[in-house]
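Justification of computing resources. Each target in the renewal requires a structure prediction run like the one illustrated here; the chain below, 383 residues long, is used simply to show the kind of job we budget for.
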Amino acid sequence: MDDEVRNLEALERVFRREKEFSFTKTTGARQALEIVRQEPIHIIITDQRMPEITGIELLNKVIGISPDTVRIMLTAYTEIPEMLDAINKGHVYGYITKPWDANSIVTLVRQAKKYYDLLTEKRQLDRELEIKNELLRKKNEDLKKYNELKNRFLVITSHELRTPAAIITGALELLNQQKEGLDEPLQKLLRNALNGAFRLNEIIETFFETVRFKSKEYALHPAVIDPRTIITHLLDQTKQYLMDRKIEVVENVPSGIRVMADQRKLYLVFENLMSNAIKYTPDGGTIQIEAYRKEGDAVYVFRDSGIGIPEEELEKIFDTFYQLENIQYHHTSRHQFMGGGTGLGLSLCKSIVRAHGGKIWAASEGTGKGSSFYVSLPLYNNP
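Resulting structure tokens:
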């Protein structure tokens, strides 16, 4: 825009030669603003000195109508400080001094076009990002609802199954005490039923403990303990399974490493880690259990020579219901090779260890190269 017709005609001649541009001209501010309202104007060029309003005042009005339109000013040398101030404030993209030449103005307009293209591309990306963020927000809401439903399912399942499972187990225990007179096949059937009932109670108890920790409704009963006693008891409990599967256990847990912990809850942690080590170590393999002090913590390690864990699975294995093995080949067992489970054990371990102010993590060099599980708990130091 310019109030001098000859300047407008000169500009029009320049841009007619440039086939990539279309050109609209006007000599009045009102007409210019009306054009911006009605047409998608990418670049506007205006003189600073005009009879109605200044060029900067005009461009400020353009910002309110079409903020993405790139604004260029034609100005005299004496007005350059004013132009620089306008550029710094974001009112003007650039300026051309009078008398201008065709090459300079075409070069600046080409730069302005690139700037406009980048600006509109950014706007489009921002809109796409906003849409994706909204979709993500909805998915997060759906996930939250799913987690709430899952937790409700766990609550209902654990509470509703505990009573009938306890009744079944009690009845089978009573029958087992009166098994004299039963032939061997019936006694074997009774033993299998009783073992299944015990396993069912363990699974329900795992559900129950998981619900309590996830909902933060648990209660810890800490005392000063030496976890070596827990490990000694576990080794005694699993001795027969280890012998049957010819798995060697190398234990290096010194006594005297004390922690403040709920012994029953810590037993659940070590029991799960020991059970996993046995399940995922093939017959004839080796399990190593060790403990040491490190920077104010007691660290307990369960290493096995088993199937290993892929690197991308190391964090996922602590998620609720996550199982490393293919669920298609699932069979429930605490000590058979590749015996499955509920997918809650390691998740429960993580919750219990965190509740004690500790950390739990896994390490493995990959499939077939064994696994190591670490539990770090704050040392108890009696002043």
